[in-house]
Amino acid sequence: MKAGGSSRSAMAAAMAAGTIATAALTMASPAVAAEAARWAVSEFLDTLQNDGVERVVFSSDSKELLALDSDGSRHAVEILPSEVPELVRSLRAKDVPFAVQAAPSEDGNALAGLAVNLLFPLVLLSGLFILGRRGGGPMGGGGGGPMGGPMGMLQPRSKIEMEPKTGVTFDDVAGCDESKLELEEVVDFLSNPEKFTKVGAQSPRGVLLEGPPGTGKTLLARAVAGEAGVPFISTSGSEFVEMFVGVGASRIRTLFADAKKNSPCIIFIDEIDAIGRQRSGGGGFATNDEREQTLNQILTEMDGFSGNTGVIVIAATNRGDILDQALLRPGRFDRRVPVDLPDKAGRAEILKVHVRDKPLAADVDIDSIASRTIGFSGASLQNLMNEAAIVAARRGKDVITFDEIDYAIDRLTVGLQKTTTSPTQSKESRKKRQELVAFHEAGHAIMAALTPGYDAVAKVTIIPRSNGAGGFTLFTPSEDRMESGLYSLRYLKAQLAVALGGRVAEELAYGAEEVTTGASNDLQQVRNLARRMIAQWGFRATDNNSILDAPVAWEQSDGNQMIGGPQTASGSTEQQIDAEVRALVSEAYDICKATLKNNWKLMETLVAELMENETVEASALQRLVLEHTEDYVAAA
User: Fold this and answer.
1) Each residue's pLDDT tens digit, 280-317
2) CATH number of the 161-279+289-338 domain
3) Could you state, in order of their start, the residue ranges of all structural domains in the chain?
4) 326: CB partners within 8 A, 6+ apart
């Protein structure tokens, strides 16, 4: 369906009424018509096919028409009466409003002009009234509600688009094979309904796609329509939320009415939580009449009195937990399909899609990029490759190398490189600061490299970042550990020791009196992790008998963030929790200090490498560790 065409059809009747009066003023005067540039019939038809005609008025004798083009110019066209039916069909096909000029009265042009002057206000008001009555729906359908009448012209139009063919298939979607399997059955229902109706099976009314932002929910919905070869009507939940009560429900009615005319088809509602939130329990002032009326209309359309045969609703949200239960019951959204962040294999497949039109250097390994981008969504990976392409163009390269991709990963994860320095900072002061940062980051890196079973170190750098970081150590977590979300006590203790590596390295290199505040974030991480190990996960650091011997969770959590709330532990229990936290941190500190002391030669070598090259990659770090293996003494 042509964009904007539905709005033109909704306005056709009103514009036609207004055009009668306007054109009558023009065509009643032969002098004005003679002054306008004339068109041949062929010119008129060509302009009409190119959407260049706004409205048309036929003369009363069907020998001439007056056309208003998109630039506001009027053009007279001589026609034959026999051509009128064909011209009318062409105008209707293009949704161009047209009218017929009234025949002149016997009193002449003066009386006709007087009649026009008298009737023009009435005709204009009638046109506005018709526009208001017909402007209730987003796609030009019936109205209703409080915004009917002349004030309906003030109602904003919702952005609802219909695509006969999306041009997207499952081959264009990567990294979510499980989700595609769930949706292939929906495609089968749409493309081969007889297969299911003969055994009494009914197609699902709705499919809810749930997942974090950027995981490809919209792309999946478009792929379903493309695979099934059915029209795709898309909109957003916020398009139905208006200040005036009843507008949203009216738009829902019109949306489903148009969908049924084009069935089988798919309606896609993005961010459905904007209108599908859990309704209030009644009473009080928490209710929102407009949102609830819109939700009630969706519930009725999906599985109400009339049903929605041949129409499947696909909705997307990243807040499925707040949706109304009536929306999620069988018969409405029958299926809930999770669309999660991709794993390593999925990220590799997504990257292959996004590098189709990008020239990569021969040595670029897609699998290694996938390993470095844990936690990236499909949209993030697309942005990553686009950033790499921009950097390559900025550097004047014809192909994208791994250096550009590495630069883009660092920029997206830890911030942009800070290339400017303070003009008042001396070279000696700058070098001293770099050495301090080098010792700090080397402490993290070596502690991780010498801890069995801990995450691999991908890179160590002392290049400052725009977010204030003087450098960073990049780890590559285990894919299995990330997917399962399960962490052993051994791993958590190692994480405490690695986090303390920077602070301990500064202390060993410069003495306790010269330790800086650079480890403030590390210490906060250590405190939070140790507290959760004791108060949430039931771990212990000591063998002393206490109330903490029982594995009890004394605090609640939501992901990685602590939740404030009523105190669940007594004062004495809090004291024991604090004692256990101190014991855990002290144990990690002792292990870290002993390990770095025993491998100080490796520390100095890594610091020298950082001072010279600013960045040490994983392969270079592994080489340094192997060269100093004979001097390595593991701490107990």
Assistant:
1) 665 444 455 777 888 888 888 887 655 556 788 999 99
2) 3.40.50.300
3) 5-134, 161-279+289-338, 344-413, 427-631
4) 299, 332
Strands of the 232-236 sheet, one edge to the other: 161-163, 232-236, 265-270, 311-317, 206-210, 335-338
CA-based end-to-end distance of the chain: 72
Largest CA distance in the chain: 117
Helix (H) or strand (E) holding 59: none
Would you call 58 helix, strand, or coil by DSSP? strand
Most confident range (mean pLDDT) of 309-313, 341-345, 381-385 is: 381-385
Q: Regarding the domain with residue range 427-631, which homologous superfamily does it belong to in the CATH classification?
A: Peptidase M41 (1.20.58.760)
Q: Are 409 and 374 in contact (CB under 8 A)?
A: no
**Global pTM?**
0.63
Task: Write the CA distances from 636 to 391, 490, 593, 595, 625, integer angstroms.
Answer: 46, 13, 11, 9, 19
DSSP lists the bridge partners of residue 234 as 161, 268
- The two three-digit tokens of residue 210, written as one number: 């749930």
Q: What is residue 439's three-state secondary structure? A: helix
Helix (H, G, I), strand (E, B) or coil at 214: coil
3-state secondary structure of 561: strand
In degrees, to the nearest 5, what angle opens at C-alpha 58 toward C-alphas 53 and 60?
170
- Name the residues annotated as catalytic: 441
pLDDT at 359: 92
Fold observed for domain 5-134: 3.30.720
* CATH (residue range 344-413): 1.10.8.60
Q: Judge whether 274 and 227 are in contact, CB under 8 Å.
A: no
Full DSSP string of 519-548: GHHHHHHHHHHHHHHHHTT---S----SGG
CB atoms within 10 A of CB 205: 20
Are the C-beta atoms of 353 and 174 separated by less than 8 Å?
yes
